[in-house]
Write a structure and sequence with these properties.
2 domains, 5-stranded antiparallel beta sheet
Length: 217
């Protein structure tokens, strides 16, 4: 799905496909992406395959690399249809006993700036499978949607919930602003629950999940 298709779908859901409505929808989508990009872990989970070069042990990270979503194992050597995980280690461990003449199938890696290094040095053109978090770039109408599915569904559901408001308000800008704030609040709450689970108190008798007694000392 492209952003233009998402824009058209949301416009259809609120029964207003006017140019002004579509323009507001796209502004809203870009704001959500911008907000997601500032949140810890609120990035697109992605993966790819690259071919290593014999005797080369340092490579550039993807241009959209934001971090690892598996702390210690995110790179795998693919050989004979099997995946062999590489261990992420510190600089100190990486260079302890490191030799550029020690070759073989890589078993360890380290991250440094915009690069990663492998140990031992590849002795052939292995296939490296990489799993990582990618930054969410500014949406372009013709580009594929890069919003994590979890939050894409939040956006769609909020549009449906507020459809009646859109129909009754002449100033749809205020309604779109309310929609954006609700999505932001949802994402912030999710981020808080994941980062500080011990500070979220469960309310078993509530009809819906809420954050309660968050700031306990």
């Amino acid at each position: 799905m492209t952003y233009q298709e998402l824009q058209t779908e949301l416009a259809s859901q609120i029964a207003d496909s006017s140019d002004s409505s579509k323009s507001l929808i796209f502004i809203f989508i870009k704001d959500v992406c911008r907000f997601l990009s500032t949140q810890k872990g609120r990035f697109l989970e992605t993966s790819d395959n690259v071919t290593l070069t014999k005797n080369i042990f340092t490579y550039d990270l993807p241009s959209d690399f934001a971090g690892l979503y598996h702390p210690n194992q995110a790179f795998y050597i693919v050989k004979d249809n099997s995946y062999y995980p590489l261990e992420k280690i510190s600089d100190e461990r990486f260079f302890k006993g490191f030799s550029s003449t020690s070759t073989g199938m890589p078993t360890q890696f380290r991250l440094f700036g915009d690069t990663y290094s492998l140990k031992p040095v590849p002795d052939e053109a292995y296939t490296l499978y990489r799993e990582y978090l990618a930054t969410i770039t500014t949406p372009v109408l013709t580009a594929d949607v890069a919003i994590p599915d979890k939050y894409l569904q939040v956006i769609k559901s909020k549009v449906l919930i507020l459809a009646s408001i859109y129909q009754e308000q002449s100033d749809k800008g205020a309604a779109f602003g309310q929609l954006y704030q609700e999505v932001v609040n949802q994402i912030s709450a999710d981020a808080f629950k994941e980062d500080y689970p011990e500070r979220v108190v469960s309310k078993e008798n509530d009809e819906e999940d809420i954050l309660g007694d968050i700031y306990k000392d």
